[in-house]
Amino acid sequence: MSEQKPASERRPFHHLFGLSWYDFFQGSDFTTEENFDLSRKQQYLDLAIARTGPGPTPRALPDGFENLSRHTLVTFKSYQEALDGWALCELICHFVNYRKQFSPSMKELLPQTDFRLIAVCVRSPDNLNLKDLARREMLKPVSAGVYDLSYPGVTIRLIVIHELPRTPNNAMLHVFSANEELMKYGKEHYRPFSPETTTLLYQLFKTYSEDSEMADKLKDFVQQTIDELLRTLPPEKRLEGLSPEERLEGLSPEKRLEGLSPEKRLEGLSPEERLEGLSSEQLRVALEVAQRRLHANGTPADQGRETRDG
Which of 131, 168, 176, 223 has the fewest CB atoms within 10 Å, i.e. is most exposed? Predict the structure, then answer.
């Protein structure tokens, strides 16, 4: 049986979407938890945003996220996935389960006003007939790319990233776009709020670059972005995950030894290896140095006499 991969490896875009919100709420009275486990059968909610105090949101929220409730539950569909009716049903089920878990008891459930449901999708939901839903008065446009979808007893805020305007507050969502212009806008206007943000963007674009179905033009842009981000990463982050051999690959012998003391350069070498490749003049100098050290420290024989004399 094959080894089960962590959720973050199986669904990289969802993991990075969750990390972007963790970054967004740095230093505020909001906490986030991605891949929130709602049952023993690993039914994961993509993102839960919880208000932990009376403080305001730390900065302007993306369109559609205004007026966060005490508990905001979010499902996310990357450009690789379609938002359909089943995904919305899952979100409602997650809400029911989550509400039960966080209420004082089954007989004393938290008020429904404490919760908000949001469905974010990169592209327009092909499997949802938005015109039909609007005709049946189930769908209400709120602003560009933002809709309210009414189900019996619950309303879901629907946000379509490809339809959102290019404004700084939406930049974080635009970096998840599969549209070159929107992605470019997102990359240029997404402001870091924690030290890990550059690494987050690098991981995000690296995930794009590994997608075999991505258009060549978009891949070129992604590769350029990766090269730019690599230049801004600290050395330890660039080398993270590389073996010692991979770290040294492409370096000349001189570069590999640069910065090492003579002792460190010779460490682990046998006497023969230490002398290998030296010219007769270098050997002569090495012998003179060794002799001077012996005289400075005293030969073993001298040390023996000093011990007896003492």
Answer: 131
